[in-house]
Amino acid sequence: MNWILFGALFFVTWWLVLFVVLPFSLRTQDDDQDVTLGTVSSAPRGPHMLRAFIRATIVTVVVMGILYGLTMGLGYSFDDVMRIMPDFTPDASH
From CA 29, how far away is CA 61, in angstroms rounded? Predict the structure, then answer.
């Protein structure tokens, strides 16, 4: 895996993970019973984006580390996925 592909996969994976971890530990104004006039009660309470960025980066580093270990350490590639998966084709003998 070259560095350009690794960087592109990291970027795409980071964005996907960001949207997964974004709602974790999110406090809304309704949770704190302190709704600011002119805002909806489901608006976030206080800054939380930096924590979401850090969590997304940590999770992405772990996922990409596993991917790097599988591809470079064990020699697997994306072409090997079909050989790893079990064969679900119907057998004529049954």
Answer: 32
Tokens of 74: 């064990």
Percent with pLDDT over 70 in the chain:
93
Tell me the Ramachandran region of residue 45: left when phi exceeds 0, alpha when psi lies from -120 to 50, beta otherwise.
beta
Non-local CB neighbours of 29 within 8 Å, separated by 6+ positions: 35, 36, 39, 40, 41, 42, 43, 44, 45
Strand-pairing partners, residue 28, are: 44
User: Rounded to whole angstroms, how far apart are CA atoms 1 and 77?
Assistant: 9
Between CA 48 and CA 25 the distance in angstroms is 8
Q: Rounded to whole angstroms, how far apart are CA atoms 36 and 44?
A: 11
pTM, to two decimals: 0.71
Contacts of 43 by beta carbon, 8 Å cutoff, 6+ apart: 28, 29, 36
pLDDT of the residue at 90? 80
